[in-house]
Amino acid sequence: MNSQYLWWKNQLLNMVASIIFYTSIPLPYFERLEFTNVARCATWIGIIIGGILGLFDIVANFLGMPVLTRSSLVVAIWIAITGGLHLDGAMDTADGLAVTDKERRLEVMSDSATGAFGAMAAIIIILLKTLALTEIQQNRWLILMAACAWGRWGQMLAIQRYDYLKPTGKGAFHKQAINSYADVLPSVFLLLILSCVKLIFSELNQNNLCTALKITLIGIAIAFLTGAWFNYKLGGHTGDTYGAVVEWTEALFLCAMTIQ
Predict the structure, then answer these.
(1) How far is the C-alpha of 154 from the C-alpha of 149, rounded, in Å?
(2) Which candidate, 222, 234, 223, places its Cα nearest to that of 95?
(3) Which is nearest to 132 in space by CA: 143, 142, 118?
(4) Separation of CA 219 from chain center
(5) Which of 32, 89, 147, 173 gives a 20 to 30 Å CA spacing to 158?
(6) For residue 206, how far is the Cα from the chain centroid?
(7) How far apart are CA 117 and CA 96, in angstroms?
(8) pTM for the full model?
């Protein structure tokens, strides 16, 4: 019983550490928090963030807020909850990719100043998310949760599959935490359950089945491709590209979900 209690206690502390690391959600202070394994909880963090966004969207819709205004506020809250952590990584990655000299790319990405390409990347990501959400009329809460979750699973996959390009940095302990497919696969089952939530709690019909298949196939494909693309361009990953994988997977997932 004691060992089981300690296991659950460690899982809870890891979740708290992950929320503190990946979000701006205020939590009370806990002693002896370890941040070395936060990447393993990334998919759960995505579900939590998506759940908050979905709840806000439901309430705003109930109050009669127009879809464009609602979608814009959802994206704004999205950035606020994450503290712009992943968006900052996407901006730094865009600035680095704009440099033709491959030797200087990591140096540019480490610079805290935002360049023109970083600003353009942020604008494009925000526009894509807002406009795609405006086009999505049904199951918005589920799609928001799936977008956030698949984005972070894409990050986990990139951590596991590709080399880390820096000797130190925030992404270095991510690489140490996720070093085999055994660390990535449990999140796949979690995402499959999320994709099938309407089948589980609603009637089994063609529409709900198509929604589940669509969320699963699009999520897996985009999560794989974004990480692979950044690896192809840079020869590996950094903490910044992990953030870029999250942001671009989320944005492209929402865009793909507008396809009828």
Answers:
(1) 9
(2) 234
(3) 143
(4) 11
(5) 32
(6) 29
(7) 9
(8) 0.93
d(CA 130, CA 67): 10
Tokens 């002693």 belong to: 31
The CA-to-CA distance between both ends of the chain, in Å, stands at: 51
Residue 176 CA to its chain's centroid (Å) = 19
Q: What is the residue type of 34? A: E
Q: Please give the C-alpha separations between residue 207 and each of 40, 142, 193, 196, 211, in angstroms, as whole numbers.
A: 33, 14, 17, 12, 6
**Digit-coded pLDDT (tens) for 118-165:** 999 999 999 999 999 999 998 999 999 999 999 999 999 999 999 998
- Give the mean pLDDT per block of 10 residues along the chain (260 residues): 72 89 87 85 95 97 96 97 94 90 80 86 97 94 96 95 81 82 89 87 79 93 96 91 97 94
Answer for the pair 54, 141: CB distance below 8 angstroms, yes or no: yes
Identify the pLDDT of residue 180: 84
Question: DSSP states of 38-62 as a string?
Answer: GGGGHHHHHHHHHHHHHHHHHHHHH
Closest CA to 97 of 253, 251, 228, 241: 241
